[in-house]
Amino acid sequence: MRPFDWAGLWKPELSPLEIVCRAVLVYLAALLLFRIVGRKELARYSPFDFLLILLVSQALRQTLVANDQSLTSGLLSLGTLLGLDLLFSWSSFRSRRVAALVQGRPRKLVEEGRPVDEELRHSRFTLEELQSRLRRYGIDRLEAVESAWLERDGNVTFVLRPGARPPREGPPLPVSTAPM
């Protein structure tokens, strides 16, 4: 058994600037890839999705810090990723243009009870998927919906027509009866 190397625990093998550059490039590439995948897929984390996220992080570990196993490199890389997340979050809050670029924009999937085919196609939503989400709230007819929106977080918000009753049980938050 060899003695514990306290100095080696903190001594990075890579330059701090290289670690920061690697973290920035990986963050931007991951952001782009997740935007390409789409919001619909990210809104419904299944065990497979969660496992995929863990495996992606493991696959990118070498990309972030190469063979450097020092705590300094790991913490610097983590700090850079969290800093970028904070920067994009703040920038999205301050600028609609940045928010649209980073998070996308809400998409109107239903208007006046009729599906908007172009937006459904662009969002990779089938009519069956949309109706399935609507049934979760106890509504079985698309005609009861004034509008439906694919939100930035991947959830669908339904605005019901006046006179359509929202369900008494189930999650009430995504269903609105108020006109927009």
Shape assignment: elongated
Cα Rg: 22 Å
What's the rounded overall pLDDT mean?
79
Please report the distance between the alpha carbons of the first and last residues: 69 Å
| Helix-and-strand structural type | alpha+beta
Q: Give the strand tally.
A: 5
Number of helices: 8
**Biggest sheet: strand arrangement:** 2-1-3-4-5
Uncertain segments are 175-180
Q: Helix-strand pattern, N to C?
A: HHHHHHEEHHEEE
- Residues in helices, as a percent range: 40-55%
Largest sheet: 5 strands, mixed
Q: Hey, roughly how much beta strand do the residues contain?
A: 5-15%
Folded structure, characterized:
This protein has 180 residues and is α+β, with helices and mostly antiparallel strands. 54% of the residues lie in helices and 11% in strands. It contains eight helices and five strands. The chain has helices at residues 6-10, 16-37, 39-42, 47-65, 71-94, 96-103, 117-122, 127-135, and strands at 107-111, 114-115, 145-150, 156-160, 175-176. A five-stranded mixed beta sheet has the order 2-1-3-4-5. Strand 3 (145-150) and strand 4 (156-160) form a beta hairpin. Mean pLDDT is 79; it is low at 175-180.
Provide a compact summary of the structure.
The protein has 180 residues and is of the alpha+beta class.
Question: Which helices and strands occur, and which strands form pairs?
Answer:
Elements lengths: L5 H5 L5 H22 L1 H4 L4 H19 L5 H24 L1 H8 L3 E5 L2 E2 L1 H6 L4 H9 L9 E6 L5 E5 L14 E2 L4
Helix pairs in contact: 2-4, 2-5, 5-6
